Amino acid sequence: MINNKNTKKILAIRGMNDILPLRSFDWGSLENILFKWLHSYGYSNIRVPILEQTSLFQRGIGEVTDIVEKEMYSFRDSYNDDSLTMRPEITAGIVRAAIEHNIVYERPRRLYSLGPVFRHERPQLGRYRQFHQVDIEAIGFEGPDLDAELMIMVSRLWKILGIENVKLEVNCLGSYQDRLNYKGVLLSFFEKNIDHLDEISKKRLYSNPLRILDSKNPILSSLIEKAPILLDYLSDKSLKYFDSVCNFLKSNDIPYYVNNRLVRGLDYYNLTVFEWTTDKLGSQSTVCGGGRYDNLFSMLGGKNIPAAGFAIGFERLVELWNFYKSPSKIEECDIYITHRGLIAQKLSFNYAEKLRDSGFKVIVHCGLNDSLKRQFRMADLSNATLAIIFGEDEIENNFASIKLLRLSHNDNVNQEKISLELLIPFLKDKIKK
Ligand code: HAM
Predict the structure, then answer these.
(1) Going from the N-terminus, what domains does the chain have, and what CATH number goes with each?
(2) Are 127 and 121 in contact (CB under 8 A)?
(3) What is the DSSP string of 323-361?
(4) Alpha carbon distance, N-terminus to C-terminus of the chain
(5) In testing the pocket of ligand 1, which one of 133, 135, 272 has its CB within 8 Å of the most ligand atoms?
(6) Is this structure's pTM higher than 0.85?
(7) Who contacts 156 (Cβ-Cβ below 8 Å, separation ≥6)?
(8) CB-CB contact of 246 with 170 (8 Å)
(9) Residue 331, phi-psi category: left (phi > 0), alpha (psi -120 to 50), beta (remainder)
(10) What letter would DSSP give residue 124?
């Protein structure tokens, strides 16, 4: 008996999900598809820590953003008095690693990473506090061809997954100077309408007026609709760049929609930004977002290195994929071994190893006193192709009884006796890989 008075159930943290086996099976299948897709475009995997210095995100994402102001899991590491943060995105970490290890020294690099990220947002369907991103970064490329290739890539992913009706929205945020000019215009527009702003937007008016444009407060939407648009303040150079991105999209038959209000929630972007949205996921409709970030390297203490990338929300992608794919079924094993008595159980373990040597997935029933009825029930639930029965008769006469659990059209009996010498060829015939 455990002598512990506190036996209250301990539950998971709100917004942080357990991925149970059937779901996890889909995750694994999707990961494999994603890795193949990424490798087909020449991307290599990189893994960066989940915990980073808080200043990395403050400088990278921007002090006056929702993420840095109110969504980061930050804490002081009392052992060495560092301020640390559970990464709210992966881009800043990859850029830090690229600077630290000088990985773009010889040539541009195409990198990807997949893993958990953390944002203290209000949880709802499709919005979590621990979620996962597939993050793609192309480092050292400065042209519009690369920006277009990123979108061509995503468009191919939708085809691979059979996902339809995802909408691509693109915008151009121009250069630093373009945005500086625009900020002045925006400031005077919002100053004139200051009484209509909410508290957070009033605070941002002088520090980062662009962030007012991606406010999630519905009360502000009609005012934001009337605000001047950045496109009207872009330099010829930026416009030409954007035009070139759009031309690449057209020549690759990628439908897109120019959304002049799209500014993205992170400060590091310049020139091209884009998002893919769907109407299948309710209010959390953005599955993928990204853009160019030519200043991030220098903002984080590196050389001036141009780069662009995007991230896909993994949970949202799985959810969306589920609308288009057939339901999954986990086959825990090919063969489920049932037995009667201790000697047969021992023999089962022994024989299972041989079957695994031949490439089969095998479960040996554990539970010495369980009836054959219960063992068959477990065999059924495992989705095995067949069950092997070992009992006294089988041991004495060197054979195995087989019960086919999923009959194919060639099978006219569902129970057979096979001598042990012939068992493996028989199984190979029944369980085709
Ligand atoms: P982001 O738009 O903040 O961009 O996030 C990328 C994707 O993560 C979103 O499009 C969405 O699918 C998913 N996502 C965001 N928040 C949540 C949440 N609370 N729960 C579930 N899914 C969520 C970035 O993070 C940039 N680092 C992307 C990037 C890479 N830009 C350049 N390179």
Answers:
(1) 21-175+235-322 (3.30.930.10), 335-430 (3.40.50.800)
(2) yes
(3) TTSPPP-----SEEEEESSHHHHHHHHHHHHHHHHTT--
(4) 48
(5) 133
(6) yes
(7) 37
(8) yes
(9) beta
(10) B
**DSSP, residue by residue, 165-218:** --EEEEEE---HHHHHHHHHHHHHHHHHTGGGS-HHHHHHHHH-GGGGGG---G
- Cα angle 260, 266, 267 (rounded to 5 degrees) comes to 85
Question: Each residue of 127-156: pLDDT tens digit?
Answer: 999 999 999 999 999 999 999 999 999 999
Tokens encoding 358: 């031949």
At 24 the three-state DSSP class reads helix
Atom of ligand 1 nearest to the CA of 287: 12
CA distance 255 to 215: 27
Listed in sequence order, the DSSP H helices in 217-371 are 221-226, 236-251, 296-299, 314-322, 342-357
Q: How far apart (Å, rounded) are the C-alpha atoms in residues 342 and 108? A: 63
Spatial distance between the Cα atoms of 406 and 308, rounded to a whole number of angstroms? 50
Place of tokens 């100077």: 177
Q: How far from 184 is each of 171, 214, 224, CA to CA, in Å? A: 20, 17, 16
Cβ atoms of 300 and 52 closer than 8 Å: no
Q: What distance in angstroms lies between residue 70's CA and the mean position of ligand 1's atoms?
A: 16
Residues 243-255 have a mean pLDDT of 98
Of the segments 62-66, 86-90, 401-405, which one has the largest average pLDDT value?
86-90
- Testing ligand 1's pocket by substitution, the residue of 131, 150, 300 carrying the most ligand atoms inside 8 A of its CB is 131
Q: Is the dihedral of CA 62, 63, 64, 66 positive or negative?
A: positive
- Alpha helices, DSSP H only, in 62-175? 66, 91-100, 144-161
